[in-house]
Amino acid sequence: MKHPAVAILASALLACALAAPALASDRADHDRARAALQAGEILPLATVLQRVAAEHPGQVLEVELEREGARWVYEIKLLQAGGGLLKLEVDAASARVLKARPRRPEGH
After folding, report:
1. What percent of the chain has pLDDT over 70?
2. Residue 104 gets which letter from DSSP?
3. What residues does each domain of the chain span?
C-alpha cells in the first residue's frame, strides 16, 4: 500500500465499527439490569456477592445477569483457594444458589 497512514486509519475504523455492537449490547445489558433493580426484581449485586461469599468464598472473575424464563439469574465465576474455578447460578431476587459447578485446576 502506498500510504501506510491510510491503512492504519482504515484498520482503526474497522476495529471501531466491529466493537460498536458489543458496546451497544453492554449498554443495553446495563440498562436492563438497572431497570430490574429499580423494579425490585433483583437484589443489588453487592448484596448477592456478600451472601454467596459466606458459603462460597473466592475471587469474583466474572458476573452475568441473565433472564431465564420468569427468573433473573446471576451467573458468577469464582476463583477459589488452590486454583479451583467455581461456577454458580444464583437467583437474583433471593441470592439463593441454584447450581454450583466446581472445576479443579489441571493436574489436580
Report:
1. 71
2. P
3. 1-39, 42-108
Kindly state the cell numbers that stand for 4: 501506510
> Is the CB of residue 24 less than 8 Å from the CB of residue 16?
no
Q: Which has the higher per-residue pLDDT, 30 or 80?
A: 80
Give the burial class of 88: count Cβ atoms within 10 A of its Cβ; 0-12 exposed, 13-18 middle, 19 or more buried.
buried
Long-range contacts: 96-102, Cβ < 8 Å, 24+? 97/52, 97/55, 97/56, 98/73, 100/56
pTM flag (> 0.85):
no
The rounded Cα 53 to chain-centroid distance in angstroms is 17
Q: Give the per-residue pLDDT at 79.
A: 95
- Give the mean model confidence (pLDDT) for residues 72-85: 94
Q: How far is C-alpha 28 from the chain's CA centre?
A: 14
CATH class of 42-108: alpha beta
